[in-house]
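Narrative of activities, Objective 1.

The group set out to show that a structural description can be obtained from nothing but a protein's sequence at a throughput compatible with the screening campaign. Below is one input-output pair from the validation batch, recorded exactly as produced.
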Amino acid sequence: MARTPRRPRERLAPAAAARRARARIAEDTNGPGDRGTTAVPGPAAREPSPRPPPTDVIPWGLRVAAEAGWRLLVVAAGLWVLFHVVSALRIVVLAFAVALLVTALLQPTVAWLQHHGLARGPATALTALCGFVVLGLFTWFLIWQVMDNADVLTDRVREGVQELKQWLLRSPLHVTEKQINSIADTLSDGLSSGSGIASRGLQGVTVLVEIITGTLLVIFSTLFLLYDGPRIWDWTLKGVPAAARPSVADCGPAAWRTLTGYVRGTVIVALVDAVFIGLGVYFLGVPLAVPLAVFIFLFSFIPLVGAVVSGALAVVVALVTEGLFAAAMVLVVVLVVQQLEGHVLQPFIVGRAARVHPLGVVLAVAAGATVAGVGGAVVAVPLVAVAKTVVGRLRGTVDAAGAPTGGPAPGGGPAPPSGPAPTGGSPPSPGSAPP
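Output recorded for this entry:
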């Protein structure tokens, strides 16, 4: 009997039945919601590990540098804006700073007159009048001495230039007379050029206008600071937040004492330098002893730099007018007086509170001269001394507020203060407020 071949569908029936059986088993195991899926046993799937945050990957040093970097950029931007504002308003800022210095010098006289029964208005007027008269006479005396000795100084300078020329010709530098004459002609042409004269004349007019404007601002600012200083300080404190007002009110009198002590000490030190160096120059027979003493007095208000410049000027005048021996003796006198100033006068008269490190003095003078010229160099160091006092007082206040009042804290740090921190306060009384 012939065998009937199976159809392909009938041949695949057992495989399809097996698949349906596995599907029913998976449905019974996983539930009706996973119908159509087949649970095939196999190795467990490995879940990917989560990536750490970027801040955990960056090294700690780099994060600290970045945090400090953007803060430094903000500070630099603020200083840049402040620098340009001060440069644009340098006459006003410089005049007010000079008025503060003059007020610090004259305010004790106002207080002394008030103590002896004179009202504040007449005491202020009398002190300001006497102070500005003395300052005007001092300026007139300086100009008179310079103009009266200008011819003598010119002749001595010419003689000194001729002596220097002869020394260069005889020196081992092999300088020829033609080279010296060429340099002299170049300097003469540069000084006598018409454009240079015109530009110097225009610059002179501008400087004269600035000097007159600044002088008037100094006079009016000094008068108002002498008369209304306490009320101006009280008004300033009203713009300070209440939480910081007690600290600022405490810093004001301390800063004013520092400024007053600095100005008084600087005037005394400048007077001693001018008198002793002037006497030394006079007894050595160097001309222009009085104008040199006046210049030394003025330049002494610029610490370190002013003493070097004024001493070098005295030595150069002695060298040009009286020769090498007189210049050497003047140099000895200048060095002795400056040593006396640095080791005796400055520590005992100016005091340690108003002293600034020599590096800070040089940087402050350079910054002040860059912003506002000679006037900026004069007021830079006292402002730095005042800022030093204010920062020290604020740091002391912060340290006192965070000092432990009991046992150690649980974490090993200082214990919190027992009472609430002060959040406000009244301004200081006018008697203790600056100026």
